[in-house]
């Protein structure tokens, strides 16, 4: 059970110290938004490069951008240990996932709440992680969509049948009150932005989330 706090809810004026607050987490989740794929703009390659230089934990880059076929490999080169693109934006997801792995990154594929999983099941051999969004991508602090749990369970079942080591990540509205149902549905990597950075003791929030997830393991 792994926790990946989203720095979208961190203090952008002090990102290095904000990363140190979550040094006990498994990953630092970096939300890259381009103002086109989603109606919000956050940060890009130069900032990811800078974060990779100082982060005590590996970067989990979530790319909410158009044309990931062109840009995602550069996030792997910039220091993203895991790079997740949205299938809705990708022209050739299979080839992109292979390219990411070839660059030494873990390949992740994200699906929005309105996107079905079944058409993409055959991509599993190329993937290290599937990200099931539990909010509409674009902003932190939104309400958790419990209606995505059946999709998490579907992805978990596909992974079980496929037999590989593919992680199932949930992102959006994950907190101490919603993480249990995510774990029970089959998620094993949990992104939490406001629930971690909104806590006075971010490291304690990470530990609490990990314990709750472990106690409700699928
Ligand atoms: O990708 C996104 C939003 O598009 C997320 O990573 C959020 O930033 C998570 O924030 P919370 O919902 O946990 O506050
Ligand atoms: Co995200």
UniProtKB/TrEMBL annotation:
CDD domains the record matches: RPE
UniProt-listed Enzyme Commission number(s): 5.1.3.1
Cofactor stoichiometry and binding remark: Binds 1 divalent metal cation per subunit.
UniProt keyword annotations, A-Z: Carbohydrate metabolism, Cobalt, Isomerase, Manganese, Metal-binding, Zinc
Gene Ontology cellular-component terms listed: cytoplasm
InterPro entries: Aldolase_TIM, Ribul_P_3_epim, Ribul_P_3_epim-like, RibuloseP-bd_barrel
Catalytic activities: D-ribulose 5-phosphate = D-xylulose 5-phosphate
Active site location: 31 (proton acceptor), 171 (proton donor)
Gene Ontology molecular functions: D-ribulose-phosphate 3-epimerase activity; metal ion binding
Binding site for a divalent metal cation: 29, 31, 62, 171
An annotated GO BP: pentose catabolic process
UniProt-listed Gene3D superfamilies: Aldolase class I (3.20.20.70)
A Pfam family recorded for this sequence: Ribul_P_3_epim
Needed co-factor(s): Co(2+); a divalent metal cation; Fe(2+); Mn(2+)
Sequence positions that bind substrate: 6, 62, 138-141, 171-173, 193-194
Pathway the protein contributes to: Carbohydrate degradation
Function: Catalyzes the reversible epimerization of D-ribulose 5-phosphate to D-xylulose 5-phosphate.
Family to which this protein belongs: Belongs to the ribulose-phosphate 3-epimerase family.
PANTHER family (alphabetical): RIBULOSE-5-PHOSPHATE-3-EPIMERASE
The protein, known as: Ribulose-phosphate 3-epimerase
């Amino acid at each position: 059970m792994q926790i990946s706090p989203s720095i979208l809810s961190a203090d952008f004026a002090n990102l290095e110290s904000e990363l140190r607050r979550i040094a006990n987490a498994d990953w630092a989740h970096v939300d890259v938004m381009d103002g086109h794929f989603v109606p919000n703009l956050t940060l890009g390659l130069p900032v990811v490069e800078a974060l990779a230089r100082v982060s005590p934990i590996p970067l989990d880059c979530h790319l909410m951008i158009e044309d990931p076929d062109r840009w995602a490999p550069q996030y792997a080169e910039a220091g993203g240990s895991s790079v997740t693109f949205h299938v809705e934006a990708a022209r050739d997801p299979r080839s992109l996932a292979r390219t990411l792995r070839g660059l030494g990154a873990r390949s992740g594929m994200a699906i929005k709440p309105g996107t079905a999983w079944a058409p993409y099941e055959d991509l599993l051999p190329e993937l290290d992680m599937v990200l099931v969004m539990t909010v509409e991508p674009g902003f932190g602090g939104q309400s958790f969509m419990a209606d995505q749990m059946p999709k998490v369970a579907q992805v978990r079942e596909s992974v079980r049948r496929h037999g590989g080591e593919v992680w199932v990540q949930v992102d959006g509205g994950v907190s101490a009150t919603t993480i249990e149902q995510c774990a029970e549905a089959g998620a094993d990597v949990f992104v939490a932005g406001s629930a971690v950075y909104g806590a006075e003791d971010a490291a304690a929030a990470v530990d609490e989330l990990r314990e709750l997830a472990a106690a409700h393991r699928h």
